[in-house]
Amino acid sequence: MELLSETPNCRSKIVASSALPYLVKILDSHVRDFQERAIKILCNLSSINNVCSDLVSLNCIPRLVAFLCDETLARHCMVIFKNLLNNQEGRASITSTTGCIASIAELLETGNREVQEAAVTVLLSLCLQSVRHCQLVMEEGVIPALVYISKNGTEKGRAGALELLRILRDISHDNEQGSYGADLVTSEDASNSSKENKSSSKTSRFLGFFASKKKK
User: DSSP assignment, residue 70?
Assistant: First the structure.
């Protein structure tokens, strides 16, 4: 089946044969060879868009996270995650699965150059989707590792790391500007409020003085 899954024309037939649930179930086995074969097949099948929704419904992502510590399998898992990011359900599952983004970010430091490249590709794809995703990635403290990869990674890894650093820098800058703007608004509001209070106080004193003069 692994060889068949490498042929684009055969992938839809494999999916139609209801093989996905069995492949995902193999991930729970304790036979390393079977697990590796299943992940490679899932990697090939994940290029089919509707398969991504099936993988999410089969709770595949939490299972794959457990294999990210295996350098051989991590690269295939990264390809699956990259394909899942093209699917709304896949994106939601990746960002909501406990430890998923953290485990991917960890590969930036622990993986070999090929795995680092794959992790950068996934995180870059994730950050291109929304500001919220950028914030989730930044929370994992990825900047030092990205700086290192931008200088020492593969050619694609260096380019991806530089692009990701640029995006995160822009997001961070926008957040700082927003915070600074909010502080200015708060300060200005406080100043205006103080001026209004002083003006109101002066007006009250003037009206009181005017009223007393009128009585006399």
Answer: S
